[in-house]
Amino acid sequence: MTQQPPRPAAGRPAPTLRLGRPKRRIRAGMFALAFVFSLYGGRLVQLQVTDAGGYAAKAAADRTADVTLYATRGSILDASGQPIA
Question: How far apart are CA 32 and CA 81, in angstroms?
């Protein structure tokens, strides 16, 4: 036997269910997404416009390095392997 919901008292209308408002939820979600994307966009503008020169200089300094190579001169040999000079 299944249990039935209680009946409303005499003279009172039955309670109605209030559904959520999808328009409000969608609007709030879109606002949150727009806010997050604006944060990302602001950071991209900061990196590409205001700090570009500093990052380019740091990248160039990281890519290049001065290394001193000490080259040893080879011997000048004849066909039999004897040094000529």
Answer: 80
Q: How far apart are the first and last CA of the chain?
A: 115
How far apart CA 61 and CA 49 sit, in angstroms, is: 20
pLDDT in tens, 69-80: 888 888 888 888
Residue 41: the pLDDT is 96
CA dist list (Å): 74 to 31, 34, 82, 83, 85: 73, 68, 13, 10, 11
Determine phi and psi for 11, rounding to 5 degrees. 90, -10
* CA dist., res. 85 & res. 75, Å (int): 7
For residues 34 and 19, give the distance between their C-alpha atoms in angstroms, rounded to a whole number.
Answer: 26
